[in-house]
Amino acid sequence: MTTDLSIVHLITQAGPIVKLVMLILVMASVVSWAYIFAKYKEFQSAFKITDTFEKRFWSGIDLNELSRQVGAGHHNKSGVESIFHAGFQEYKRLNEQAGMEPMHVVEGARRAMQAQYTREMDLLDNHLPFLATVGSTSPYVGLFGTVWGIMSSFQALGNMKQATLALVAPGISEALVATAMGLFAAIPAVVAYNRYSTNADRLATRYETFMDDFTTVLQRQAHISMNEKNNGA
């Protein structure tokens, strides 16, 4: 008698609890891969936007013109663009107010950039905790299905007068499929989480460096503007 040990047969012949575990793992894997592809595109776009914007920023372009171009863009501002736009708009608003010291103007612009920076980092970190959760828990969920399947197999064998390897193998194989599916769900999630966490840290460093550099530029701009106001008065 030949025993069918194909994956499809093992899954269909598994018990209801093991099937439920497999379904959970399949759903977790599908959602993980959807987030993996989505975050890949998101990070690729973020690095491209950062590279392009930094070249424009350091090209010597007038800040008002750069702000106009960023604000008039047909795409949604994101990443370093949104940080720059938030900071420069706040700088212009405060600088137009009478009696504002340059230090207070720059501090206000810095706070606006910091608030936008926090929002941008929240977007970059979005869905990463899910990948971390899938990566850390899927092997244990699969192991639970395996243990449950093996227990069920041995309980069934207990009712038989003679247990042979041919009788034991299918039940154990069905149970081990759950462990394999747990690893299949966990490994890509762990790899993606580590990769994207590193990318988020790299972008955070670049954003912070830009804010420091832009703050220095605004300090010079604020003092020049203050001198022009005093001379005009």
Write up what this structure looks like.
With 233 residues, the chain is mainly alpha-helical. The chain has one domain (7-57, 83-226). The protein contains seven helices and no strands. It has helices at 7-13, 16-57, 63-71, 80-95, 102-125, 128-158, 165-232. Helix 4 runs antiparallel to helix 5. The radius of gyration is 29 Å and the shape is rod-shaped. It starts with 6 loop residues before the first helix and ends with a helix. 27% of the residues are buried.
Can you give me a brief rundown of this structure?
This protein has 233 residues and is mainly α. The chain is 85% helix and 0% strand.
Provide a count of the helices: 7
Number of domains: 1
Q: Looking at the chains present, what oligomeric state does this protein adopt?
A: single chain
**Global morphology:** rod-shaped
Could you list the spans in which at least 5 consecutive residues all have pLDDT below 50?
1-5
> How many whole angstroms does the radius of gyration measure?
29 Å
* Fraction of residues in H or I helices: over 70%
Number of strands: 0
Distance between the termini: 103 Å
Q: Quick check: average pLDDT? A: 85
**Major sheet details:** none
Structural class: mainly alpha
Please report which band the strand proportion falls in: under 5%, 5-15%, 15-25%, 25-35%, 35-45% or over 45%.
Answer: under 5%
List SSEs in N-to-C order: HHHHHHH
